[in-house]
Design a protein that fits this description.
By secondary structure, the chain is mainly β. The chain has helices at about 105-110, 160-170; strands at about 5-15, 20-30, 40-45, 50-55, 60-70, 75-85, 95, 115, 120-125, 140, 155, 180-185, 185-195, 195-205, 210-215, 220-225, 230-235, 240-245, 265, 270. It is globular and about 60 Å long.
Length: about 280
């Protein structure tokens, strides 16, 4: 995604020859007409890379269907479907649950789940190819600790693992998808239990604002927070397992969402005051 609103689709492949080979990149499509503002989020929706989701600075969210033209080498068509028109405001964070086709008839594979956060809420929806199977979940309001507007939401899905597949083969049921939401000083775990229902399974309070959240496999969540700390949290007991300092690493993170960008410095950390849109 580019600041002009254009999206460029590349194909990367490995070329092997007597000289050792290397990675070859080929531009297969330039998409110009989907967005009028800078593209700030872009991600593929399925494992075959035939669909991607894009969102611009104004909150316009689109699904791009990329299809190869029959009988024409290296020629592709793109069909764009607009999902959000920008009326909900800018999308501050977006996370796609990567499907795993080994889990057939499971919600993680069937519904192309996407989480996105606007200024006040986190939203869950399905972007299945079949619009009749698309779902719109209720909205989750941002926590009180984020009401000052001084922090951005952080979203990350717990991905399906080989252990999940083996468990599904043994018991007939795979674990439900879980979304980690870090916003303000609160870490929240949201479990999708059916096609129309989700529940908050746990909450954990951080001492300072959360600036990054990532699942480490299925047994731990890594939380980065303002005071140059990195904490590993047990998602089941919801307690801190280990905290280490990031002092001296000059960690950079966003705490504003806008057009202009600038940097400010503290003794051991620099942070962006606005989201970089270039």
């Amino acid at each position: 995604g580019h600041q002009s609103g254009a999206i460029v689709v590349w194909r990367l492949f490995l070329k092997r020859d007597s000289a050792g080979g290397g990675v070859i990149k080929q531009r297969i499509k330039l998409i110009r007409d989907s967005h009028l503002q800078a593209v700030v989020h872009v991600a593929f929706l399925d494992g075959h890379h035939s669909r991607c989701i894009s969102c611009d600075l104004g909150g316009v969210l689109c699904v791009q269907l990329i299809a190869k033209r029959p009988l024409l080498k290296n020629s592709f068509n793109v069909t764009t479907a607009q999902v959000l028109d920008g009326g909900a405001g800018p999308v501050h964070a977006l996370a796609v649950l990567e499907p795993d086709h080994r889990l057939r008839h499971h919600i993680a594979d069937q519904y192309s789940l996407v989480a996105f956060a606007t200024r006040r809420r986190t939203h869950l929806l399905s972007l299945h190819v079949d619009q009749k199977r698309r779902l719109q979940y209720s909205h989750i309001r941002r926590p009180v600790s984020a009401d000052d507007g001084e922090s951005l939401p952080q979203l990350h899905w717990r991905q399906v693992t080989t252990e999940d597949v083996l468990e599904a083969q043994h018991s007939g049921k795979a674990p439900d998808p879980v979304l980690a939401i870090g916003w303000g000083t609160e870490l929240q775990l949201l479990q999708v239990v059916s096609e129309t229902e989700f529940v908050t399974t746990a909450r954990w309070q951080c001492s300072t604002r959360i600036t990054g959240v990532r699942w480490l496999g299925t047994q731990a969540v890594c939380v980065l927070h303002e005071r140059e700390k990195l904490t590993v949290v047990d998602p089941y007991a919801m307690k801190a397992l280990q905290t280490t300092t990031t002092d001296g690493l000059q960690v950079v993170y966003h705490n504003r969402f806008g057009v202009n960008s600038s940097l400010s410095s503290s003794p051991a950390m620099r942070r962006t005051q606005s989201m970089v849109t270039g």
